[in-house]
Amino acid sequence: MSSEQRVAVITGASSGIGAALAGSLSRRGWHCVLLARRADRLNQIAAEIGAEIEICDVSSAAAVSETAARVLEHHPAIGLLVNNAGIPSHGSFLSASPERIEQVIRTNYLGSVWSLRAFLPGLERGRPSGVVNIVSVAGTTVVPDAGPYSASKHAQLAFSRALRAELKPLGISVLTVNPGPVTTEGFPQTRLINKRSMRWTVLTPERIAEKIARAIARGKSEVVFPRWMRIAGISTALFPSTVTRVVARGDPGRDVELPKDGEGE
Ligand SMILES: NC(=O)c1ccc[n+]([C@@H]2O[C@H](COP(=O)([O-])OP(=O)(O)OC[C@H]3O[C@@H](n4cnc5c(N)ncnc54)[C@H](OP(=O)(O)O)[C@@H]3O)[C@@H](O)[C@H]2O)c1
User: Fold this and answer.
1) What's the gap in Å between 177 CA and the centre of ligand 1?
2) pLDDT tens, 135-144?
3) What's the CATH number where 219 sits?
4) Is 109 a catalytic residue?
5) Quick check: is 48 in a domain?
């Protein structure tokens, strides 16, 4: 790491969007610290892009606190924190196990809260600095088959928007990213990929990572990728009863992949 390089901490960087974003940020000159639970995967990615790793379960406030203390000892000033770690619910409010429902909330929502609080002193020392929260289109609309996941993303979206107002006076920016379907290990999007007419709606992690890196560089505050999927959040905000009725009656999500089950986001 050179003395001029700024430090980016990325949670959930052992695969998918987090790993791809680490690559995009490294190519743009960031020194990345990669957080996740799987050491082997982190080591492999870190070796490829010249990053550091920390094994950390973001669903544990204590683990995040210990990890942040270790990182901040070596890197007192942090330029960017990316809250990306996330898991699917693998079911609805009726079919998912109670343990899974808890873990989804602990990881997708509380993991972002604990990481922000733990790394905040570093972000303050690194000002002008920024936080990126990888939320989801599922945080903006009705997703009956993946209700627990969608609820965790609604909570994370509220966190991200409130945080933007709270951190602005401190000189720390917040970017909320709401991706549509992206094919990854946790969210393979098999149903969409297998349907030739819908395959085009699914992004690759590398493609969305480049879009996120550009949004960071441009100082954006909230983005939806692909852009046309903003319609999901807009229509739900304006006509919640109608959208709920349509989703309950039909099966539009199977085509449009407003995430329908735990696997498909
Ligand atoms: N793919 C999509 O269609 C899509 C759409 C909208 C939003 N998103 C969001 O994008 C983010 C990244 O997901 P992805 O699609 O890239 O899935 P992915 O490839 O499965 O990656 C998830 C990452 O989160 C990490 N993770 C999970 N639980 C963790 C925990 N308790 N502590 C630390 N790290 C943890 C995983 O690493 P370890 O298992 O090694 O810990 C992995 O690196 C998630 O927040 C997801 O909700 C995805």
Assistant:
1) 14
2) 999 999 999 9
3) 3.40.50.720
4) no
5) yes
Report, as ranges of residue numbers, the positions in the chain whose pLDDT lies below 70: 3, 250-265
pLDDT digits (tens, 9 = 90+) for 165-212: 999 999 999 999 999 999 999 999 999 999 999 999 999 999 999 999
Q: Find out whether the beta carbon of 14 lies less than 6 Å from any atom of ligand 1.
A: yes
Dihedral of the alpha carbons of 205, 181, 93, 116, in degrees to the nearest 10: 40
Is residue 91 in some structural domain? Answer: yes
pLDDT of residue 254: 46
Total structural domains in the chain? 1
Instruction: Flag whether 261 is in a domain.
Output: no
Atom of ligand 1 nearest to the CA of 202: 3
Q: Which domain holds residue 95?
A: 7-256
Determine the distance separating the centroid of ligand 1 and the alpha carbon of 169, expressed in angstroms: 30
What integer pLDDT is reported at residue 5 of this predicted model?
A: 86
For the Cβ of 181 lying below 6 angstroms from any atom of ligand 1, the answer is yes
The reply to whether 207 falls in a domain is: yes
- Catalytic choice (109, 149, 187, 225): 149
